[in-house]
TrEMBL record:
A Pfam family recorded for this sequence: TetR_N
PROSITE patterns in alphabetical order: HTH_TETR_2
Top-level taxonomy: Bacteria, Pseudomonadati, Pseudomonadota, Alphaproteobacteria, Hyphomicrobiales
UniProt-recorded name of the protein: Helix-turn-helix transcriptional regulator
InterPro entries in alphabetical order: Homeodomain-like_sf, HTH-type_TetR-like_transc_reg, HTH_TetR, Tet_transcr_reg_TetR-rel_C_sf, Tscrpt_reg_YsiA_C
Keyword DNA-binding: yes
Keyword set includes Nucleotide-binding: no
Domain of life per record: Bacteria
Keywords for this protein: DNA-binding, Repressor, Transcription, Transcription regulation
Entry-linked PANTHER family: HTH-TYPE TRANSCRIPTIONAL REGULATOR RUTR, HTH-TYPE TRANSCRIPTIONAL REPRESSOR KSTR2
Length: 209
């Protein structure tokens, strides 16, 4: 599995060979087929194992983050890290697996849903707590987040450079937040009262100086 992951990450699916994977694992090629039906089966197993690790990482990481906005930022930043730290596998997922017409029948699709569900759960929790607007559609917001991340990450996948993932995470969330945050009720303090309080404060400061 480790040898296969290395080969798939560096060579991609089409250029990866079972012979090279076997050689890196120190076994003969025929032995690989005792455990995996095909190169595609092996690739699916590698990606599934990778997803399990991502799910565990996000689940554990969220236990240390408080607040809906902070938790959404954590999810965004963690997914951006995928493209930086696991570029080859992320590229494999987008260019190979998702183009397969049978993708939605695979274990990987189920794992992908579990992974994306972290963001959906945070949005639902934000609505429940009154931090997010009651009329927003969680699935749409989730898709906007992941779609925005993927669009930004094409810079990495195409080899055109890196990303400041902290800056990108802040920009994505900063752009979305005004549209999804709950509209707070107008303050009961009138504008006249606010002006009067400000005038008193100015006078008081003047007297102190």
């Amino acid at each position: 599995m480790n040898a296969a992951r290395l080969v798939f990450e560096t060579a991609g699916y089409d250029n990866a060979s079972m012979a090279e994977i076997a050689a890196r694992a120190g076994i003969v090629e025929g032995t690989v087929y005792l455990y995996f039906d095909s190169k595609k089966d092996l690739m699916h197993r590698v990606i599934a194992e990778w997803y399990e690790g991502l799910i565990a990482s996000v689940s554990e990481g969220l236990t240390r983050v408080v607040g809906v906005r902070a938790r959404l930022r954590f999810c965004i930043l963690r997914h951006l890290r995928v493209y930086v730290e696991d570029t080859g596998l992320a590229d494999l997922m987008i260019r190979e697996l998702r183009r397969d017409r049978k993708f939605y029948e695979t274990e990987i699709y189920s794992l992908n849903k579990r992974y994306a569900a972290f963001v959906t759960a945070e949005i639902l929790d934000g609505i429940k707590q009154g931090e997010l607007g009651p009329d927003i559609v969680p699935e749409i917001v989730r898709d906007l987040i992941f779609g925005g991340i993927e669009h930004c990450a094409y810079r990495i996948l195409s080899g055109r450079g890196g990303l400041d993932i902290d800056l990108v995470a802040d920009r994505i969330l900063g752009t979305l937040w005004p549209g999804i945050a709950a509209q707070k009720e107008a303050s009961s303090v009138s504008i006249e009262d606010r002006i009067a309080r400000l005038e008193k404060l100015v006078v008081a400061n003047g007297e102190e100086s």
